[in-house]
Amino acid sequence: MLMSELMMISHVVINAFLARMENPEPVLAAYGVSFGVQVVLSAPVWACSIVFLSFIKDRASMHRLVVFGAQVWAMTAWIWLFVAIAPVGQQFFQMAFGISEPVARAAQYCLLVGAAITPITIFRSLAYGLLMVRRKPLWVTVGTVVRLVALAGILSVLTQWFEGAVVGAYALLACIAVETVFAVLIAAPHYLRAERRVQPPPGYRELWRFSWPVMVMQVAESGVALAAHFFLGRLPNPVTALAGFTVVDSITRLIMSPLRN
User: Fold this and answer.
1) Measured between alpha carbons, how far is 132 from 29 in angstroms, rounded to an integer?
2) How far is CA 42 from each of CA 19, 153, 176, 240, rounded to the nearest angstrom?
3) How far is residue 196's CA from residue 62's CA, in Å, rounded to a whole number?
4) Would you say residue 235 has pLDDT above 80?
5) Cα gap 154→184, rounded to integer Å
6) Is 201:146 a contact under the CB 8 Å cutoff?
7) What is the pLDDT of residues 67-87, one digit of tens each?
8) How far apart are CA 159 and CA 233, in angstroms?
9) Distance from C-alpha of 88 to C-alpha of 145, rounded to nearest angstrom
10) CB of 42 closer than 8 Å to CB of 74
11) Which of 84, 131, 159, 171 sits CB 3.0–4.6 Å from 111 for a disulfide?
């Protein structure tokens, strides 16, 4: 629960940092709609954390789970990259959320940067899953503290090179990468002490049969905020509405995170 709370704090910190930029409303709006799309597209991979906890038995099972995570990521990666790179992606942001062309371009750039986050989280989820199976949850919390400390330094450095919403996207990517490296290093001794093969690894059909209801649930839950973005884009002043909702949504996630986990 503490780990989840600390994780959500990082999103609040990023939004608070963006809110202090010059002309913050379009910056927050671009980051908010990009994050809303990103959360929905990455929801199946986030669901893998539950799958990993359920199937980690030995090294063979972990190898199988890494490949399964890559399969799940590939399922949505092509949509993600298409929206983030193709000109139609910019039109999608403009039409769906009622934002101007510059704000849409910024959102599209943020989405492109965020594309690197999801495959990284596959290894973080596997490392944290192994630590939880070994009854070492304190290290999971420590990893999240490392993420927050890294985030503070990353945000201060990024402003020397970038400006606008992309600062939030790069900061989120970098702090999750630092957290993942820490998690993998801490989990590595437990991996090396694990049996090579206690039982046959789960089949891919079994993994998909178990995980698809969890993925649907995760996508549906993540889609609530994205649906709100669609309706806010229809308001007379969508940029202000989207900027305000971005801040409120991050605070709501922070308050609700212990209950959700």
Assistant:
1) 36
2) 25, 26, 14, 26
3) 10
4) yes
5) 20
6) no
7) 999 999 998 899 988 999 988
8) 29
9) 39
10) no
11) 84
